[in-house]
Amino acid sequence: MQDNSDRQYRSFRNNIPALTVLALSFLVLRFLVDYTRSRRPPNYLHLVPFLAAFSILMLSVLHGTSILKIAVIMTLNYTIAKTCGGSKVGPVVTWVFNGFVLFANEWNDGYEFARLHPTLETLVSWDEIKTPELFNHARRIMSKECTRGGILASTLPC
Description:
The structure is a single chain. This protein is mainly α. The chain has eight helices and no strands. Helix 2 (16-36) crosses helix 8 (131-148) and helix 4 (67-84) packs antiparallel against helix 5. The longest helix is centred in the N-terminal third of the chain and has 21 residues, at 16-36.
């Protein structure tokens, strides 16, 4: 019996196959990036471009155009940290700012682009391709593999 009362946990549990595919694709791509290097440096700095590109791609898929809002919040946090330097007031200002962001998000049910500014309404139409639909697509692909006895059938519990 599954407890479906918690929406966030239900979403996570239902998307485990898609998250597994995402994790495996990351590992395979990272291996290929490492393997294609003729000489491996002693550190992992050569992976920085791959990790940055994969992170941006994953955030875009998971959050859609809301990645812009995340970037603004991250930039403001960075600005607070740089402005306050090593002073004792820095952590307090950071906590107050992020607490304000969390409560404002809760009070407003998120931040719709159209409410922020009318010209940003076009970003809402870009967000119509939602992550759950991508996860549903990945789930359909995996279930087809399981029923046909494909390559994933031997490694996944179908």
